[in-house]
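EI: anyone free to look at a 123-residue chain?
SC: sure, send it
EI:
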Amino acid sequence: VQLQASGGGLVQAGGSLRLSCAASGRTLSTYIMGWFRQAPGKEREFVAAINWSGGSTYYTDSVKGRFTISSDNAKNTVYLQMNSLKPEDTAVYFCAAGVGSVKIPITHHYAYWGQGTQVTVSS
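SC: here you go
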C-alpha cells in the first residue's frame, strides 16, 4: 500500500484546510485509513479514522465537531476536512493504513504510512 498526503499549508486561526490522502495497492477495501499528527517535540497522535465504506468513523476528542474524515472509493482517496482551525492544530499530518477497528487510535495499529504534510495555524 502506498499513500500520498497533500493539502497542508499556512492558515489563520478559524480558517479551514482539506487534506487528501491518495492510496494505491491491492485490496484497499480491507484496510482502515487514519490521520495522525505530530507537533514539534511531541509524540505522534491519532486524529481520525475511517473504513473505506465510510460507515465507521472515529475522532479524537480535541477535533470532534471541527474535523471531518471522509472517503472517495472511486478515487481511492481519503480526506480530512479541517474547520475552525486553532494554533494547537499546527503539526505535520500523516495518513496511514491499518486493519481492524477504526476505534484503535494507536500508531502500532497502522502498518503503512504516507509522507507528512505540514499544517501551520497562525494566531
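EI: The radius of gyration is 13 Å.
SC: 👍
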